[in-house]
């Protein structure tokens, strides 16, 4: 997903309530927070120059790839049902299963 697609998705109601809630009492899910981090990473390095990423960015991107890979392997329905929590959670993490 592009930064603008992810930002638009995270503003919507569907992006809320799928996934594990953070334990800080905010009600935000871990995936939703991850999506906001992804937007920051994409916006600060729009040309995707590898030398411009900070170590924290790389760590988060590895976490995102690992999550999406694991989740897609376990949840085939994410590609078939756009109302499923799996689909919504993957989008929060910046991956649209319908685009692959």
Compile the SSE list and pairings.
Elements: H1 3-11, H2 30-44, H3 55-74, H4 85-92
Helix pairs in contact: 1-2, 2-3, 2-4
- Intertermini distance: 11 Å
Number of helical stretches of at least 4 residues: 4
Strand proportion, as a percent range, falls in under 5%
Structure class:
mainly alpha
DSSP, total strands: 0
Taken in chain order, the helices and strands follow as HHHH
What share of residues is helical?
40-55%
The parts where pLDDT drops under 50 for at least 5 residues are none
Q: Report mean pLDDT, rounded to a whole number.
A: 88
Q: What is the CA-based Rg, rounded? A: 13 Å
Largest sheet: none
Which overall shape is indicated by the principal axes computed on the Cα atoms?
Answer: globular
Q: How does this model look, in words?
A:
It is a single chain. The protein has 100 residues and is mostly helical. The protein has helices at 3-11, 30-44, 55-74, 85-92. The protein is globular, with a radius of gyration of 13 Å. The mean pLDDT is 88.
